[in-house]
Fold these 2 entries.
Entry 1:
Amino acid sequence: MRLPRLRLDLTVNILTSHAVNNNRITVFGGEQLRPNLHVEDMTDLYLMLLDAPDEVVDRKVWNAGYQNLKVREIADMVRDKVGPEVEIAVTPTDDHRSYHVSSEKIRRDLGFVPRHTVEDAIEGLRDAFVGGLVGDPMSDDRYYNIKRMQALRLQ
């Protein structure tokens, strides 16, 4: 049996980290859409898939990205949860990649509907950063793919 692959978007994580740790969010463009799925819902989905009969999931493809939001909307939501002192700087970009997905098929086929929202994720991240549960999030290479790969000398 092959499990479906899920694309992760870290926009909420990055913007919340910058808001809490720098009091500033830089939004590049902002009109790009990002589908969102809370990590708790993702792990619930993985467990659901592992328990499902092979014939239900084998060689199937689904999208699991609810709350399609513009990056600028996510930034505003982060400021609402972190505090009004957070500055949002919008800068032009030549990267206009936008990802809008429908999760109707996974709802229809598996009955999967997330229980958590983007707001829940922002609050959880905010609390983890403020509570010191994430060690040095602005410079530790564990939180930056390229830096981590360079540190491990991966090509």
Entry 2:
Amino acid sequence: MRERATRPFMDIDDLHNRVPELRKDELRKLAEVGALNFIKDGRRTTDDGQFVVDGRRTTDDGQRSTVDGQFLHRRSALWQVERAARAVGPLLKEQKDQNSDSPLSPMTIEERVNADFRGTGLTIGRHPMAYRREELNKLGVKRAIDLREIRNGVWVRVAGWIIVRQRPGTAKGFLFLSMEDETGIANVIVTPDIFDQNRVVLVNQPLLLIEGPLQNQDNVIHVRARRIEPLSYAMAAAASHDFH
């Protein structure tokens, strides 16, 4: 931050030379989570108020479209970090690589989300569920925000990342789940018999699809789980907060 306030970084070499405190593993981590994408012409917004992430223009809804090649993508940044952080003598320290472009393709959406979770525990882009919404709609899965408009007792399907599991000793074997999607949180009640039938999936799988009747009492909304299955997406998730 001190050096960036003085002047923008021109490239990864410039960052490495001006901030020698950054170790190679730290530079790698910054590159993996997209923190170095702005380096080349400096991070800037476009005329229509959009900003650039991973060498692509990003709108408020997270859709990306290709722009000019003036920004690094994550693998390009990683490629340059490996070269820049390699130990050299003083004679070559300031020498610029005339062919520093990475031959590696940009990360896919799944790879970027996984890198975000590995490096920071969260993602600053779209919620992972948003990337699968079209597929979930075809399966009849309701968004968390939709549940408030559904009558008590109606059978529903919900899906999301499990962010909280609770099975307190006073709950007589009931399990309570909080499932997050791109619109909010859906709460699920699992009875002891359903828990016993699906114990492995409920305890170990981060992403679930759950079916059952909606319970809406005085605007306190839950889904009472009757059918439970894992969803296999090539995306990681932050660890859930489990209380027993």
